[in-house]
Design brief:
Layout: H1 2-26, H2 40-59, H3 63-92, H4 104-113, H5 115-149, H6 151-164, H7 173-179, H8 183-209, H9 212-220, H10 225-260, H11 268-277, H12 281-309
């Protein structure tokens, strides 16, 4: 019985795609959406089905892959039906204004037809994000270690951190543009600031939460201050540090969009703002999809890195 149930679950995405394609071709369009040269939405679904089929075939030989597919298949099915409903509403009905809600064919068509231009903007955004993130994470880590380990430093800097840290990053834009000589330098600072606060807060909190017994034992064994920081404080705070990095990543993406819409000449944020200014909401949605995919991929890589470094947490803490 369980085997039959698993088979049904695994074929659900195929059924969902089949129903979606049937509805796509058998329900008349509302006539208001601009026609595309190719059925890009259908082509997108076919690519997804092929990828899913490849993983499904792999699952017959790798049990772990099959287990993950069984767990994820209902979600994939729901996602396809969501896209199906969205396509029906925007393309087949007149419930939503066409100008602000373009068809999925137009959105996926733009992603494909302008892929080179979009990729160049993605590269620009990633470069800016990497610079700001690196400066912010390093500064936040050092500040967090100082605040968490040395009480005198915490005495003076904690109030300052608590005052300036919660201020929204976008509120610093006018000051940053006045202080820094170039827009690029100001944007790097703003992204770094968005990352600095959560990394600082969680690093210091993690060190302060480390049991004092560990520090006492290491002192008894003759450990130096540097050794205690490197081998006791930082390892004990690693779960909190990663949590700060995750928060910082999300904040950095929000800040990236804000700064690129404010004076940049390239980047996905600039592209979204440009498309909005010329009332091309197809490009706006395409840019939002790219941002969502970028953020999701980076967070996934961070989770993989965290799982590798903190393998001792496996089965103890769930994210």
């Amino acid at each position: 019985m369980k085997k039959i149930r698993n088979i049904i679950v695994l074929i659900l995405p195929f059924i969902a795609v089949g129903i979606t394609i049937l509805l796509y071709y058998n329900i008349a369009d509302n006539g208001k959406q601009k026609k595309t040269e190719y059925p890009y939405f259908v082509n997108f679904l076919i690519v997804l089905v092929i990828l899913y089929g490849v993983f499904l075939l792999t699952g017959f030989f790798v049990k772990s892959v099959k287990k993950k597919l069984i767990a994820k298949a209902p979600f994939y099915t729901g996602l396809v039906f969501f896209l199906c409903a969205l396509n029906l509403i925007t393309t087949k009905t007149t419930w939503l204004p066409t100008l602000y809600f373009p068809s999925l064919d137009r959105i996926f068509g733009l992603l494909w037809e302008e892929k080179s231009f979009l990729l160049s903007n993605v590269g620009s955004s990633l470069k800016l994000l990497a610079e700001g993130f690196a400066f912010g994470a390093i500064a936040g880590f050092i500040t967090g270690v100082c605040l968490g380990y040395w009480q005198p430093v915490g005495y003076w800097l904690n109030p300052v951190t608590k005052v300036i840290g919660p201020i929204p990053t976008t509120a610093w834009i006018p000051l940053a543009l006045s202080v820094f000589s170039t827009t690029h330098a100001a944007n790097v600072f703003l992204i770094a600031f968005a990352v600095w606060f959560p990394v600082t807060l969680m690093t210091s909190s993690g060190i302060q939460s480390t049991s004092a017994v560990f520090f006492e034992v290491s002192s008894t064994l003759g450990a130096s201050t540097f050794y205690k920081i490197l081998h006791v404080a930082i390892p004990g705070a690693m779960p909190s540090i990663f949590l700060g990095v995750f928060y910082g990543t999300v904040s950095s993406f929000a800040t990236l969009m804000a700064v690129e819409m404010n004076g940049s000449a390239s980047g996905i944020g600039w592209y979204i703002n440009w498309q909005k200014s010329v009332m091309m909401y197809t490009g706006v949605y395409a840019g939002l999809i790219i941002i969502a995919v970028m953020c999701s991929l980076i967070l996934t890589l961070l989770f993989k890195l965290r799982d590798r470094i903190l393998n001792w947490q496996k089965g103890v803490i769930r994210w």
